[in-house]
Amino acid sequence: MPLTIPVPEAEPPAPVIEVEGVWRSFGENTVLRDISVDIPARRTTAIIGPSGTGKSVLLKHIVGLLTPDRGQIRVFGDDLHALPRKQLYAVRKRMGMLFQAGALFDSMSVGDNIAFPLIHHGEGMSEAQIRARVEEKLELVGMAGFFDRPTAALSGGQRKRVGLARAIVMEPEIVLFDEPNSGLDPITSDAIDQLIRDMKAALGITFVVISHDIVGTVGVADYICVLERGGVAAWGPTAKVLQSDHPMVRAFLSRNLDLDGLDGQHLPLPTARPGEAD
């Protein structure tokens, strides 16, 4: 089955996350080197690249868990790392996170896991309101009727779905994924990719995805950022990145994709924006 590559937009939506000149070192090890990328609202952006290139570190900066040595990260127009604690907390409430291992509490039921953010941050929601919200999100991720199921008995794919339901239960505007397909079989992995596509269409959420599943990423992402040694090797609409002549980018993508076999029917040419260099 041929890949369906998202068609590039003539003009993307305004950025909801702006990463500008970000550097970060740990001791003498420089992990992020002058990273600049604007992540558009209501689209899916994938951050990919070889292991050790700073993908997870960049994600932690975007969610505010790490602070850059230099540069700025603006989310919803606010300089994330210059905000007072109360305002930073308010911005974080507008973001959801799906961790690689799910980060679920096995001692709790499925419903209690998903309800956890609402109980602690739901601002006075009643028990009935919380249950209704959780059941709504369970249905959205294809797990209706699982509210009272024991979390410890879930399969890997089911855990990912529950983790996603918990990530969106506060109805955030941004959801960040750390390896959503990690440890899943190909069929379950495809189902998770389809779920991401469906939720973007239904909810208009901005998704930021770190992934090693290149084939799945290409089918899901509207935009791709390729990191190399902590710097940006390629950035732009998926179709444009797949046409990159950067040696590392082509070598990395070619391990999983037949780039020469992606013809014009399945790889639409990007539409250049005014002032954009070829």
Describe the structure.
By secondary structure, the protein is of the alpha/beta class. It folds into two domains: 13-94 and 174-268, Rossmann fold (3-Layer(aba) Sandwich), CATH 3.40.50; 104-171, no CATH class. Helix content is 33%, strand content 23%. The chain has helices at residues 55-62, 85-92, 110-121, 127-140, 156-168, 186-203, 214-220, 238-242, 247-254; strands spanning 15-26, 29-40, 44-48, 70-75, 78-79, 95-98, 174-178, 206-210, 223-228, 231-237. It has a six-stranded mixed sheet with strand order 6-7-8-3-9-10, sandwiched between helices. It has a four-stranded antiparallel sheet with strand order 2-1-4-5, covered by helices on one side. Strand 1 and strand 2 form a beta hairpin. Helix 3 packs across helix 4 (127-140), helix 3 packs parallel to helix 5 and helix 4 (127-140) packs across helix 5. The longest helix is centred in the C-terminal third of the chain and has 18 residues, at 186-203. The radius of gyration is 19 Å and the shape is globular. Residues 263-278 have low confidence and may be disordered.
